[in-house]
Please model this.
Amino acid sequence: MKIGIVGLPNVGKSTMFNAITNAGAECANYPFCTIEPNVGVVPVPDERLNVLTKMYNAKKTTHAIIEFVDIAGLVKGASKGEGLGNKFLSHIREVDSICEVVRCFEDTNVVHVDGNINPKRDIETINLELIFADLETVNKKIDSAKKKIKADKKFEAELNLYERIKTALEEGKSARTLEYNEDEQEILKDAYLLTLKPILYIANVSEDQLVNPFEDEKVKQVVEYAKEENAEVIPLCVKIEEELSSLEGEDKKEMLDALGLGESGLDKVIKASYNLLGLMSFLTAGEQEVRAWTIKKGTKAPEAAGKIHSDIERGFIRAEIVSYDDLIREGSMVAAKEKGLVRSEGKDYIMQEGDIVLFRFNV
Model:
């Protein structure tokens, strides 16, 4: 699963990407520093794995992972090819969701492509380019559906759907602001609309603004815009996150405590991005390895077993499951079994966040 980091040039995208991934993406104070997207794979923070590793004295700990793509800064006219726009839009088309970085801090040493700081304008600049690109796609879909209707009336539903989306786009609204039934969701699978992708907004603030970010007028602009799309806003100071990313253990904890933060902003971004994609983790635990496995919410037990190995899904018999909270409260698997907290679940069981599983199978 890929998260595309987007934003205008010089808003802190590449610096944030570097801090998230420590991948060393080039970062400079001029537009279009990033042309080819940088890609970084990062672990999803999960304290449960550390607890289980100690409990089982496991030799190995493996986190769930998520992939971030640092996409070059978009500018006005990107949908018409401005600023290498077509290339950048194709990169956005390839990701599963969007993480939009919005600059909310003032700094005369860092140039802004439009000359001054205005978060609402910046968001609209990017989102309008995505809307223009989607309008082009939707118009083609409408033309295609009109031709198909002549042979088969079933395509009326497709035509009505795309005309409804076109109306929203022409009003400056993203496709994600509309609601869709199951049939419509199926139709949209091959549309690859940019504004249908789930989105998370990052308000890049100064250290002073970080003290009470949601009271800041510039951050409020981001929150107000995000509300229309039921999107989450995470304020963070990319400059601080860059410094935090170079620290580990007690040093990192001391800096977080000094800043009055429970966790780093980047950890929040990674967790929120994971959730944005409708993902969750189930866990396996033993002396050899403690591991988090990524699945879509709503996944049934056999399909989850297939994430470990296709043979386990093919020969699935049952899943022996204990919840993480129950196991930690009882202190051991033996104690959990004695209390009747280890359940035997069949093929129709829908996996829950934090299930610790042993799959029984026969091939």
User: Anything to note?
Assistant: Residues 177 and 229 are 5 Å apart (CA to CA). The longest helix spans residues 119-149. The first strand starts at residue 2 and ends at 6.
